[in-house]
Amino acid sequence: MKISLLGIVLGLVLIAFPIFIIFQYRLTLLNRYVKSIVRIVVSVAVIALCTFASVKLNSLAFNIFLALLFCVCSTAMSVVKARLKFERSFLPLLAGTVAGAIVVGLYFIFLIMGARGVQVSTLLIPIYGLLTGGMIEANARALETYYSGLRNHNQLYYYLLGNGCTHAKATEYFFRRGLQASIVVVCKRMSAVVLTAAPSIFFVAVMGGMDVLTAAALQVFLLFAVLSASLIAVFVTLLIGRRYNFDEYNKLKKIFKNESESSLSNPSAPRGTDPASQPQG
Fold first, then answer.
1. Distance CA 187, CA 189 (A)
2. How far apart are CA 17 and CA 240, in angstroms?
3. What are the angstrom distances between the C-alpha of 85 and each of 31, 34, 80, 229, 258?
4. Burial 214-247 (b: 16+ CB within 10 A, else e)
5. Residue 159 phi/psi, 5° resolution?
6. How does pLDDT run across 130-155, given as a tens digit for each residue?
């Protein structure tokens, strides 16, 4: 299936129609709308070029490189969304994202999809693109919850340390909150399918010629694959972060952006609200 030149022109009409509405009713949304158009065009163009190169080269090594590149981009976006410092959180999260993507991605490709030979190289890019893209928000929420909890509820952390708990035991509560936040994000996404959002993967797979039952299974299993990959990523990230982001006195280093001083360095620092404590909309 191909879109003709006339189809592209008619598609541009759909882009222009909201602009007409914005001007007609004098809505102050033109800049935001244009920025959104530019952002999606650039993103889709980059992904399309990568996929085109993957199809033309038909090289497993190149596809593996692109899959790792997706992991790097996903990690960077998660760090930005969590408002964490790159130098403190990028490498631990990258290790976790790569671990989750490799384990779940290969499991999905070889065991669930049953790919063999050339099919492995063909499925690598779309599966890893969906996995790493779906992990962005879950990883960001988990990290923000974990480190916000340590910063805002530092008295509990110090109380446990002062009463003989190991560092791993003292951070166990916050560790569980981080995992919980990751699960909540993906569960909300699962609940949104059909109820508030269309099952896009299902419809696109059907449009591409996949039978209905296989497309339905693909839609469901991919959501659970994202959840599993996110949990692995968060587990590995926080496990590394226990040693990477704490000093020799078990104090949390400066981890958040624009943070002049770690709140854990001062047990009397004002307490805030961690993301997991906020109501889920």
1. 5
2. 49
3. 29, 29, 8, 23, 9
4. ebbbbbeebbebbbbbbbbbbbbbbebbeeebbe
5. -65, -45
6. 999 999 999 999 999 999 999 888 88
Whether 253 and 245 have beta carbons less than 8 Å apart is answered as: yes
Instruction: Identify the DSSP state of 275.
Output: G
The amino acid at 6: L
Q: Which residues of the chain have pLDDT under 50?
A: 261-272, 279-281
Q: Which two tokens stand for residue 49?
A: 């070029």
Assigned token pair, 15: 């882009």
Residue 169 and residue 154: Cα distance in Å, rounded? Answer: 14
Q: If you search the block for the tokens 């699962």, which residue do you land on?
A: 190
Helices (H), the chain: 5-24, 30-57, 60-82, 86-106, 118-152, 154-162, 167-170, 172-192, 200-207, 212-244
Tokens of residue 53, six digits: 């190169």
